[in-house]
Amino acid sequence: MSAPVIKTAAGHEFRSTGDASQHRWLFTVTAGIPLLDALHSVSDLLSTIEDPINDAAMGIKALEHNAAWRVEHVLECAKAVIDSLIDGIEYPDSPADQRATE
What we know:
Layout: E1 5-6, E2 13-17, E3 24-28, H1 35-47, H2 50-57, H3 65-87, E4 89-90, H4 96-99
Antiparallel strand pairs: 1-4, 2-3
């Protein structure tokens, strides 16, 4: 079997907006981004929340207000990209119906 081709998949939405009952999403992951590019972006995102999390863990500064929202938003974005990459795995040598069950 050939190595899987991994790119971001379509359909990964994040950051709900408006009336929660309407299930609307403000942002979406762009489909077709190569694995390494997407992972570099996730790494960059996660690096922006290292300091506030470390400060909270060390008891230097509580994780609250804007810092807490930043951590929540970054984690939501990173999760959407990782989920998109997982769904974007394609095995070139296997039939489409088999890929859906792997």
